[in-house]
Design a protein that fits this description.
The chain is an alpha+beta fold. The chain has two helices and five strands. The protein has a five-stranded antiparallel beta sheet with strand order 1-2-3-4-5. It starts with a strand and ends with a helix.
Length: about 80
């Protein structure tokens, strides 16, 4: 599961088997994990994060959407 990005306490990554799904990223901090679709950016699963923290995470995904999509396509192909 390649880590694509680290911002503060958050690790943004894919699972190797995710290629059959639309582009998305998993975000992990401590024991919490969320899943966010990348195009368009929208929450799929919040995995224990508070609403406030998910708002922060979604903002980070939006700010880094092009980097995350590029990493997805580099890893899984188009």
């Amino acid at each position: 599961m390649p880590t694509v990005l680290r911002i503060g306490p958050y690790r943004f990554f894919f699972y190797a088997g995710d290629g059959g799904e639309p582009p998305h990223v998993h975000i992990e901090r401590d024991e919490k994990i969320a899943k966010v679709w990348l195009d368009p950016v929208r929450l799929q699963m919040s995995g224990g994060f508070s609403r406030t923290e998910m708002t922060r995470i979604l903002k980070l995904v939006l700010e880094n959407q092009s980097v995350l999509l590029e990493a997805w396509h580099d890893y899984f192909g188009h």
